[in-house]
Design brief:
mainly alpha; 154 residues; 4 helices
Length: 154
């Protein structure tokens, strides 16, 4: 990767950091001291969402700073796994990429395999020793066959 390309990415990272840090100041949550239960619940959900977004933002900023350090160290654009060059196309699409496309795909396949194993283990817990499901699910032919219990006292 040539010096001009590295400088472009460094400028891009500086802009990302400035944009993200500026938006953090705008997104200060002000607690509501009133309203009914719906307002309070809505405020709580909004606070939860903002917290999750802030956590994602912090993770992104960390990746941007790591990428900047890699540019300074001269290791930007080199896969952390196989030490091959990460394609310029991939870096343009995902500037904070630390893995080449082949290593990233392998990582995702391994993660998916782990997910499938966990899902299969959970499914096997719901079966008894004879292999039958502990609880059979009721199957319906139409919505009229479903009986609902009221949660409201009349």
């Amino acid at each position: 990767m040539n010096q001009m390309t590295r400088q472009k990415f460094m400028t891009q990272f500086n802009e990302m950091l400035a944009d993200r840090n500026g938006s953090n100041m705008k997104n200060v949550l002000q607690a509501q001291n009133g309203g009914d239960e719906i307002d309070q619940l809505s405020s709580l959900k909004e606070h939860s969402l903002n917290t999750r977004l802030d956590q994602r933002n912090l993770l992104f900023l960390k990746k941007v700073k790591e990428a900047q350090q890699k540019i300074i160290d001269g290791t930007y654009g080199i896969c952390e796994e196989c030490e091959c060059d990460i394609s310029l196309k991939r870096l343009q699409a995902r500037p904070t990429a630390a893995l080449c496309i082949n290593c990233q795909e392998e990582k995702e396949r391994n993660e998916m395999g782990t997910f499938k194993k966990t899902r299969d283990a959970i499914a096997s817990i719901s079966e008894d020793t004879t292999g039958d499901h502990i609880s059979e699910r009721q199957k319906y032919n139409s919505i009229n066959e479903i009986h609902f219990e009221s949660v409201v006292d009349l």
